[in-house]
# Entry
Amino acid sequence: MAVPLFATSLDAYKPRLAQALAEVVDGGRYVLGPQVEAFEEEFARYIGVRHCVGVGNGTDAITIALRALGVRPGDEVICPSFTFYATVEGAVNAGATPVYCDIDPQTFCLTPDTVRAAMTPRTKAIVAVNLFGNVAPIAELSELGVPVLEDSAQAAGAKLYDARAGALGHAATFSFFPSKNLPCLGDGGAVTTDDDEVAKLARRLRFHGSDDKKTFVEVGYNSRLDEMQAAVLRILLPELDGWNEARRGAAEAYERHDLGEHVELPEPAAGAEHVYHLYVVRHRRADELREVLSAREIGARAYYRVPTHLQPATAIYAPDGRELPGTDEAARTHLALPMGTQLSDDSVREVVQACASGSI
# Structure
């Protein structure tokens, strides 16, 4: 029985999505129109903040948010290396120098101790990634004295105690790429914040550095969430909590079974309501386990086997001698197993049997 890595589908929403897109065409507004305004209000309300600023994608969201938080060329921004490349790319695009920081290999997130060890007088922001649907310890990181930007691209709907990811730091960023927990039908992103000035600057930066489309007070970006994607997101946002509950149900199904002696299950951070964008386990011979699963047509993937501080374009920011043992361990041992809103119990059992059958 084949089991895909992503067990999700929007087939049931096709009629409503088609109608919404047709209404956008009929209205003749395609950029920064009523659908974007409505989605920004609805998503801000869902997250629990005053402001949502729709932008072109999650990478631009990071760049724009960092600049809105006051990061300038030459400033240092602390970033995990164990993350998707766009986290660091967004910081570099803002003119900052990324400073790689280690993670807790159990949660895959930054910790106050690892961040504190990486801070210098030039540190102007911390990018805390809520990786794989887990939530970083944002409150503790915020006590370190510099703004904390949540990269919540993989954690839409997650919570830390009673607050949602996206409302925990000074600002947060989201991606609505089609594989995300809250997807659109292309690229899309957002910045969320309770800070009026950060929101004002983010709106300016997304439209070429202009507040009124006539006077350009700084060099910005052409990065705006379009009306069609906003219309799609408005339809799908009310489904997000139910989808995340289905993901947690799939995670609980994995936990009820024995995945094998050497398979370590994901560990939600203390107080976190994980949303399992990916179901990432750890195994000392992860690549061999992936081959066992692949032979049985079961999707499995190591996402960040080469972390960002070792990537050709961004290795220049990694000073010689800095050790990132948690990052190295996570990179070597992590493996994503099938996950999604439509992952059946039979599919989970198939994955479990395959993992347990591999004598590795």
Q: What stands out?
A: The mean pLDDT is 95. Residues 240-256 form the longest helix (17 residues).
